[in-house]
Amino acid sequence: MKSQNIVRLFFSTLLIGAISTLITSFFVKAESYKEFLQPFDLFELFGLFVFFIALGMVFSLISQMGFFAYLTINQFGLGMFRGLWTPIQLLLILFTLFDLIYFRYKGSDGTTPLTIYVLVALALFIYSWLIAGLKAKQTNRNAFIPALFFMFVVTAIEWVPGLRTSGSDYTWLMIIPLLSCNSYQLLVLHHLTERK
Fold it and tell me: Which parts of the chain are coiled coil (predicted)?
């Protein structure tokens, strides 16, 4: 990949993270905005915008680190495990699905119903499946499992800080930019690396 493409990918992903977090904040942190609308305080409102844009850039950086770490791990896995790398990724996908449901439920001491964890894990899995299918359609069918692994397992790992916060605001505020940035990077990569 040319260095100008890496720079373009970096800044465009940064922008996606900033915008998606700002838009998500309107829904997740609506009470924060209401606080500065009545009475209207432009300076505080601007500060809130800057805060969520900067937070989105941080989420974008987490996404980009995860993406480039996965590209390295994938090459390492292909070289070391060869034909076993695909089944290993499938096992890790299943373990992550189990982890997102069972261990999170156990960690909550039963305060949150199990169905909530099942629905969240399934929603993330279905979204990852759709993006992986789109990636396989755009490139080749062998890209499906690596794309699913990246979208599901790597996103879940990147989401850990959001999952550990008290309350659900930052949990939801973090996952939307992560999914947006990860989807964008995955779907644009083959356009940046293809030789003309």
Answer: none
Q: Is the pLDDT of residue 196 over 70?
A: no
At 72-121, the pLDDT tens digits run 999 999 999 988 999 999 999 999 999 999 888 887 776 788 899 999 99
Amino acid at 74: N
Euclidean distance between CA atoms 191 and 188, whole angstroms: 5
Query: Whose structure tokens read 């700002």?
Result: 22
Judge contact between 185 and 63, C-beta under 8 A.
yes
In this structure, what are the phi and psi dihedrals at residue 18, rounded to the nearest 5 degrees? -65, -50
Amino acid at 22: L
Cα distance between residue 62 and residue 55, in whole Å: 11
Residues 50/56/61/63 CA torsion (nearest 10 deg):
180
Is 38 strand, coil or helix? coil
| pLDDT digits 0-9 by tens, 13-30 | 999 999 999 999 989 888
What pLDDT digit, counting tens, does each position of 119-130 carry?
999 999 999 999
Q: How far apart are CA 12 and CA 163, in angstroms?
A: 26
Helices H, strands E: what count in the chain? 10, 0
DSSP 8-class letter at 2: -
